[in-house]
């Protein structure tokens, strides 16, 4: 007995419809999943970054310096703005050429146990001949409704093929 379904079409199995540079509008928002920063996040980031300053990994050091807990590294916090956590990369599967640039401003400390709420918003669309640059503003709020990070991403996208 065959379990092959002749009606199934793998090419129709898409998460989001394909979009091209000209399909986007300024003001569109991408809310990314909220995440609670855990010891696993700290351990993974330490492994990747090789940063071993005790402010990120030694609770007693943090207490002795008046901190409420382990302080998340700024780059660790910025990672939570990765567009790959949401629907955007699925929408630009064939249009994305490059992630060009990223910047971040760290406004408040993030400690283990904080829950972060990242969002991206299209701020500027710069058309070029066959491509365009999309500028997204990034924000992260914590569980106290405090803005902990602002920043920007730039993406190079293809225009719709003729």
UniProtKB/TrEMBL annotation:
A Pfam family recorded for this sequence: MaoC_dehydratas
Superkingdom assignment: Bacteria
InterPro entries, sorted: HotDog_dom_sf, MaoC-like_dom, MCH/BMMD
Gene3D superfamilies: Hotdog Thioesterase (3.10.129.10)
Transmembrane segments: none
Extent of the signal sequence: none
SUPFAM superfamilies reported in the protein's UniProt record: Thioesterase/thiol ester dehydrase-isomerase
Domain named MaoC-like: residues: 25-137
Protein name from the UniProt record: MaoC family dehydratase
Organism: Phreatobacter stygius
């Amino acid at each position: 007995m065959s379990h092959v379904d002749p009606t199934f079409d793998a090419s129709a199995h898409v998460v989001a419809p394909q979009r091209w540079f000209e399909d986007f509008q300024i003001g569109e928002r991408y809310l990314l999943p909220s995440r609670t920063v855990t010891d696993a996040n700290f351990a993974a980031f330490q492994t990747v970054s090789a940063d071993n300053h005790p402010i990120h990994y030694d609770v007693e050091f943090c207490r002795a310096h008046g901190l409420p807990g382990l302080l998340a590294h700024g780059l660790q916090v910025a990672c939570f703005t990765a567009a790959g956590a949401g629907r955007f990369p699925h929408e630009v599967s064939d249009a994305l050429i490059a992630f060009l640039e990223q910047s971040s401003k760290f406004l408040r400390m993030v400690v283990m146990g904080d829950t972060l709420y990242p969002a991206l918003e299209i701020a500027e669309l710069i058309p070029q001949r066959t491509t365009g640059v999309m500028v997204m503003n990034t924000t992260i709020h914590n569980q106290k409704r405090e803005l902990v990070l602002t920043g920007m991403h730039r993406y190079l996208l293809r225009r719709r093929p003729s």
